[in-house]
Write a structure and sequence with these properties.
CATH architecture of the largest domain: 3-Layer(aba) Sandwich
Number of helices: 11
Strand content: 15-25%
Mean pLDDT: 97
Radius of gyration: 21 Å
CATH superfamily of the largest domain: Isopropylmalate Dehydrogenase
Number of strands: 12
Bound molecules: 3-isopropylmalic acid, manganese (II) ion
Shape: globular
Order of helices and strands: EHEHHEHEEEEHEHEHEHEEHHH
Oligomer: single chain
Number of domains: 2
CATH class of the largest domain: Alpha Beta
């Protein structure tokens, strides 16, 4: 008797390099499923949200698109934004806020309240820091993904006059703060357990604890939410006496991500701070070309998570078969990990895909190769 689940994935290639890198991700999923009869994945591919859809229909996606996506187990998205190539002056352009809006609507619509962006440089990926310890960086940046600075509340008065005034309100609730900080502690604990399994333990703080959560705020200047985060963090930390705690102001965190990033383990930050820190963290990984990302709702698996690389549409190289697909493939591995929490075949596939990308980077990371050539190598090595 077979009990495996058939996973239903909504594939959204999006704009720019999105379709090129997503094509490699779909090929990888096909190859993984073809070589493991226990892994069953079906997907539907949509040409929205995208600039092309907007050009045709006056909106980025059909009005019921969130309802339609809600029927899937997960969403795999390439990139949104300027479709490129920049050599085409007549390409259809939208304001950044309009072209990226679906990303934020999907995160909010399915209450994907965690954004996880792991930082673990792979051999062969560009290394921007000269210090050899940069090879040992292993951190997970956890970004609050449902509120904070991204609530889109505010407005402009007296537009275009000398009296013009703009407000942009940030909202921090106890509920969202509690759940994101708790999630950070849960992840710290499970990372420590995973390190113990492979005999690679780390120590943090005077008490030599095996994992750490670093809270990031700007409480010296923005005390209301900063103090609330700090108090809730201290309360939750009592439930995790085995996890070391730490706090950094966001500006100092930026500095330390450059001077000694290997000292961090789990980092938890607000929506905007997490956004900024994860571009910096992507550089520690070797750049946007190798930096995966996941938007999750850990408490409600009935709502689809969204897996999208940290990179954007890269309009300067779009449509030229030049984009590196590693970030998209590592993002796909994160999707398989998430599926793997229920399905051992998906868990195995996630490990295989990540290892194949890592081997390819180690062997060829310094060469510049066309998108499909990287895809062929990674996928060929899966068989
Ligand atoms: C990201 C992006 C988005 C964000 C933009 C495109 C709205 O920068 O996923 O990090 O700020 O969340
Ligand atoms: Mn960003």
């Amino acid at each position: 008797m077979t009990t495996e689940k058939t996973w239903r994935i909504a594939v959204l290639p999006g704009d720019g390099i999105g379709p090129e890198v997503v094509q490699q991700a779909v090929r990888a999923l096909d190859a993984l499923a073809a070589s493991d009869s226990d892994l069953a994945i079906e997907y539907d591919r949509f040409d929205w949200p995208s600039h092309a859809w907007h050009q045709k229909h006056g909106e980025s996606a059909p009005s019921d698109y969130l309802e339609r996506l809600g029927e899937y187990d997960a969403i795999l998205l390439g990139a949104l934004g300027d479709p490129g190539p920049t050599s085409d002056p007549d390409r259809y352009l939208l304001s950044d806020a309009d072209s990226l809006a679906p990303l934020l609507d999907i995160r909010k619509g399915f209450d994907q309240w965690v954004c996880e962006r792991p930082v673990r440089p792979l051999e062969g990926a560009p290394q921007y820091l000269a210090d050899p310890r940069a090879r040992d960086i292993d951190m997970l940046v956890i970004r609050e993904n449902s509120e904070g600075e991204y609530v889109n509340q505010g407005g402009r008065l007296a537009v275009g006059t000398e009296n013009e005034l703009a407000t942009q309100v940030a909202v921090f609730t106890h509920r969202a703060t509690d759940r994101i900080i708790r999630h950070a502690f849960v992840q710290a604990r499970s990372r420590a357990a995973a390190r113990t399994d492979v005999g690679n333990e780390r120590e943090f703080g005077a008490e030599k604890k095996r994992s750490q959560v670093c809270l990031v705020t700007k409480r010296n200047a923005q005390r209301f939410w900063g103090d609330m985060y700090t108090e809730i963090f201290a309360r939750i930390a009592q439930d995790y006496p085995d996890v070391a705690t730490h706090h950094e102001l966001v500006d100092a965190a930026c500095m330390k991500f450059v001077t000694h990033p290997w000292q961090f383990d789990v980092v938890v930050a607000s929506n905007l701070h997490g956004d900024i820190l994860t571009d910096l963290a992507a550089v520690l990984n070797g750049g946007m070309g190798v930096s995966p990302s996941a938007n999750l709702n850990p408490t409600d698996r009935s709502r689809p998570p969204m897996f999208e690389p940290t990179h954007g549409s890269a309009p300067d190289i779009a449509g030229q078969n030049l984009a590196g697909p590693a970030a998209m493939l590592l993002t796909t591995a994160m999707m398989l990990d998430w599926m793997g929490e229920e399905d051992p075949a998906a868990a195995r596939a996630g490990v295989r895909l990540r290892e194949s990308v890592a081997r390819d980077l180690a062997a060829h990371g310094r060469e510049s190769r066309p998108t499909n050539v990287v895809g062929d190598a990674v996928i060929g090595a899966l068989a």
